[in-house]
């Protein structure tokens, strides 16, 4: 199995609290509505949505990836930090046992929030 590390930063005019709520807390409801051409549904298949829970992302027909499962490792609404591991699905391509993501939404001087995604 291989190891790959990458860090990206994405600027946003939206405050960290609103962005965190939309992309993390309410993702299972909001993302399929925002991206109906890509995401069919997001289901919490184990747990209550907190650490240790498993979310399954189901993609639309014709997508290269049918579904993936993510395990929530940490979710902190005070620091706007979300860590999860992709643990199952075609995205692993038999090259990785899992892919760990660390996402942090930070306040910017202009009121927006760059969000940093680290993948390992």
Automatic annotation (TrEMBL):
Molecular function GO labels: abscisic acid binding; protein phosphatase inhibitor activity; signaling receptor activity
Keywords for this protein: Pathogenesis-related protein, Plant defense
Family: Belongs to the BetVI family.
GO cellular component, one term: nucleus
Superkingdom of origin organism: Eukaryota
The protein's name: Major allergen Mal d 1
Classification via InterPro entries: Bet_v_I/MLP, Bet_v_I_allergen, Plant_def-hormone_signal, START-like_dom_sf
Gene Ontology BP term (one): defense response
Domain Bet v I/Major latex protein: 4-98
